[in-house]
Amino acid sequence: MIYGYIRVSTDKQTVENQRFEIIRYAKNNNIKIDQWIEETISGTIDPERRNLGKLLKNVKKGDTIICSELSRLGRSMFMIMSILNWLMKREVLVCTVKEGYKLGQDLQSKVLAFAFSLSAEIERNLIAERTKEALKRCKAQGKQLGRPKGHKNKSYKLSGKKEEILKFLEDGCTKTFLIEYYGVSSATLYRFFRNEGIRY
Predict the structure, then answer these.
(1) Distance of CA 200 to CAs 48, 49, 105, 160, 195, Å?
(2) Is 9 a catalytic residue?
(3) I need a labelling partner for 103 at 20 to 30 A (CA). Which of 69, 133, 154, 181 fits?
(4) Per the residue annotation, which of 9, 68, 119, 186 is the catalytic one?
């Protein structure tokens, strides 16, 4: 299947310019658009709450998504990269008209996926280093580390990460990105959201 994806942020904007660009691109490359996905919604909204989320769940290996530019997928680098990473893992080709990208299994795509995974790994290492430094500081100050005997565990894998997660969400990161980034299950993430009063 070949999908044409169009997104505008407000009712005042028109989808026709994007549609024209995609149709012209399709004709120049002898491509037939099988289905159009259109929506009027901010790119900062979680893809799961957009028509794009439904599209991401329905695409299969060998499918193609054509959009006018990468910014149509999202408004932040983290969001766009997580979406592209999701699609590349499923061997779905993403074509952009303005930038001329064809992101799939070629070298350019693999470099992009590597850059994404590398940036995520660096951030995880930085967080781990900050945690180690904080633990050393607490120990030096004579504070007790760990759970006192006989007490139930009130700390979880995402404990203490509320501000960081809120920043990710503000940057437009998806719940899928958070699950992969922190290495937790969706149930753990949703439980954390409920416990911390985070709307999702």
Answers:
(1) 10, 9, 32, 18, 12
(2) yes
(3) 181
(4) 9
